[in-house]
Amino acid sequence: VQLVESGGGLVQPGGSLRLSCVISGSMISVKSLNWFRQAPGKEREWVATLTSEGSSAVADSVKGRFTISGSTAENTVLLQMSSLKPEDTAVYYCRSRADGYFYWGQGTQVTVSS
Questions:
Q1: Which pLDDT does position 27 carry in this prediction?
Q2: What is the pLDDT of residue 30?
Q3: pLDDT one-digit tens code per residue, 55-89
Q4: What angle is formed at CA 97 by the lines to CA 91 and CA 103, rounded to 5 degrees?
Q5: How far apart, in whole angstroms, are the C-alpha atoms of residue 65 and residue 72?
Q6: Strand 90-98 and strand 76-81: pairing?
Q7: Cβ of 21: how many Cβ atoms within 10 Å?
């Protein structure tokens, strides 16, 4: 199973980015697709979840600014980020929960700076 994130980059405060995660490999039962992020010197934190039942949730710190979408059936998850702030700077990771395992991508860097 391989997860590949893309879409990161440098953006000015107030700008937008869309992250994509494409998952390949054999997974029988995907329970959820998730985004996490890790800022320098900080713990990795949960950002958003998309479940196989179609429900979604985002962390309070990004509510109203970030939207998760995609499909566990198609093994693709997106994270639309808007009104970005310098504190959103981090490496963003995609994670799949499937078949009793967690699978992680390598991450994509998002830097919010003027």
A1: 79
A2: 86
A3: 999 999 999 999 999 988 888 999 999 999 999 99
A4: 50
A5: 22
A6: unpaired
A7: 25
Supply 95's token pair.
């994670």
Cα distance between residue 74 and residue 63, in whole Å: 25
pLDDT at 25 over 90: no
Tell me what the mean pLDDT of segment 40-57 comes to. Answer: 95
Q: The tokens of 103 are what?
A: 């699978």
Q: Is beta strand 108-112 parallel, antiparallel or unpaired with respect to 9-11?
A: parallel
- DSSP code at position 1: -
Q: Which residue has the tokens 């997106």?
A: 78
C-beta of residue 84 within 8 angstroms of C-beta of residue 73: no
Q: Which two tokens stand for residue 62?
A: 């990004």
Q: Which residues pair with 100 in a beta bridge?
A: none
Encode 43-100 in three state secondary structure. Answer: CCEEEEEEECCCCEEECHHHCCCEEEEEECCCCEEEEEECCCCHHHCEEEEEEEEECC
In this prediction, residue 51 carries a pLDDT of: 93
